[in-house]
């Protein structure tokens, strides 16, 4: 074989090897700005029909003039359809995309369908919580039936390395409905949390439950909250006591609230659903014609929690025409890019703060808005 022929053969082999490598599936996912959706508007389904995102029956609703957008993150790559090395390389150098190990979004030994089902369950839970929190914010009491699902371990409560069950295991049974704690009748979920938090840890308390149709009084000592444990590093927000049981709440809503988010999953739209319900039920127009986007989980006490992909969500909101973005206070440090021109970032820690922010924007009182330090 001549030298020139050998060079051609080696070149062909190298080229084929390079092409083969670029087509190799890689265990990475690529994140980018996803879709947005106005919770005050309609959402189209796969068959082309459209329906309102939030439907309320049993109470008067009021016209709105603006938009309240929830935001999402687009994820490319899955266990069944991994991205190629070539696609990963292209996205790696795209400043608007973020390449991460795929196990951050698809844990080992899980399928895309399993992750989708969990995301749908999280979305459903966030919708239920949003309805309760919105009505509570508007001064409506939402009674709850609080049923014991199971006792939990100390590890479940945030104490590292402690697998022993809490003291509740010896007396509480699955299916018990909590009626009173320490002589205080429990009506709402928020009330239970407040009463338990005020209990002195490690001291016996009487807990009245409904068991198989009969009332029984159980006595046991609650544990300190995880943050109250020595060396836990927790703060005052999680101080006090914990009963040490997992509860399944069932809420008796005074109005019928239905949220239709189609196939969008995950809990991160909770705050925006809550604000949408408030805007529809409140006589005053919170949005005042403006397009306000945001993100954040919500718990039953109205606290706004951190989410992932904040830069991409801000990008998607700006692309959708939003001029304001409500970001969880705990996500401020995660904003690594300068927000696009024309959108302003407001930091909130609770639904009450988020509602107040919308009221300030409506009134033009912008100086009072809480901001993320270093983000402009």
From TrEMBL:
- In this chain the Lon proteolytic domain maps to 263-361
For this UniProt entry, the molecular function terms from Gene Ontology, in alphabetical order, are: ATP binding; ATP-dependent peptidase activity; serine-type endopeptidase activity
- Coiled-coil annotated residue ranges, if any: none
What biological-process terms (Gene Ontology) are attached?
A: protein catabolic process; proteolysis
Q: What is its EC number?
A: 3.4.21.53
Q: What InterPro entries does the annotation carry?
A: Lon_proteolytic (IPR008269), Lon_Prtase (IPR027065), PDZ (IPR001478), PDZ_sf (IPR036034), Ribosomal_Su5_D2-typ_SF (IPR020568), Ribsml_uS5_D2-typ_fold_subgr (IPR014721)
Active site positions, chain numbering: 268, 313
Enzyme's top EC category? hydrolase
Q: Which UniProt keywords apply?
A: Hydrolase, Protease, Serine protease
A single Pfam family it belongs to is PDZ_2
Gene3D superfamilies from the xrefs? 2.30.42.10, 3.30.230.10
Q: Which family does it belong to?
A: Belongs to the peptidase S16 family.
Q: What PANTHER family does the database record attribute to this sequence?
A: ATP DEPENDENT LON PROTEASE FAMILY MEMBER
* Protein name, UniProt field: endopeptidase La
Give the source lineage, highest ranks first: Bacteria, Bacillati, Actinomycetota, Actinomycetes, Micrococcales
